[in-house]
Amino acid sequence: MSSTPAADVFAMEPPEARLLDGRKALVTGADSGIGQSIAYQLAAHGAAVAINHLGDSKVADAMAQKIQNAGGKAITVPMDVTQEEQVRRAFALTADAFDGLDLLVNNAGVERPFRLVDMELEWWQKVIDVNLTGTFLCSREAVRIMLERGSRGTIVNITSVHETIPWAEYSHYCASKGGQRMFAQSIARELAPYGIRVVSVAPGAIETPINQDVVADPQRRKAVQDEIPLGRWGNVSDVAGVVAFLASERADYIVGSTVFVDGGMTLSPRFD
Ligand code: BGC
User: Fold this and answer.
1) Whose CA is nearest to atom 9 of ligand 1?
2) What are the chain's domains?
3) pTM higher than 0.85
């Protein structure tokens, strides 16, 4: 069983249940799918949230408004995570607005299948740039701010079950996600002595705009579902709740781990 709260319904958690009061967060790719749910979840738990969007700000603006109307804190920040200067500016803007930054969620990601023989260099690079280089650029900027201000921050990387499960026709995507994991674990070691925790959340098959073509095709949808021991696709809220917990002090001793939120997909004997 799972609840499927509509992504556009927002309410603050009651004060005594809030896990992230006073925290200052930036979520990349926060205006759709898993990122949107994470932004709402962090804000509901009392964090001030910078909602990153690329291009049109309409959805991000509406989200910020909704959070503010309910008594939460949010701003919107335009940024292409692959562009160094834009990243620098977005983090400076956030740290100015919130007087610091102590939580980054690297969520922005892209995918599109190509057989190896048809793989266009442009798409190989796009996937590596957004998923992996974007994670590096944003983490570097966030950690510079955290160290400068002496804050014990947290970085949560949204990877994928494909940080470990190979996936035919998604070799670029798997390379980016496996790379994200090793990057996260390496900086986790480097930053733990400063009290900065780095963790990863690896979603399985979650219904989002990124995989609407599969979700909309009953046969392909069922084929994926058959690979999930729990017998259902995941919801964005399945992921967002885990991110809020991992970002909170309750998870203070969790460093460098990946938490799989996949209904058991990584336990499946076969995946293609
Ligand atoms: C992808 C989804 C896919 C899931 C399981 C995720 O990383 O974004 O499209 O359904 O992995 O294969």
Assistant:
1) 211
2) 15-264 (3.40.50.720)
3) yes
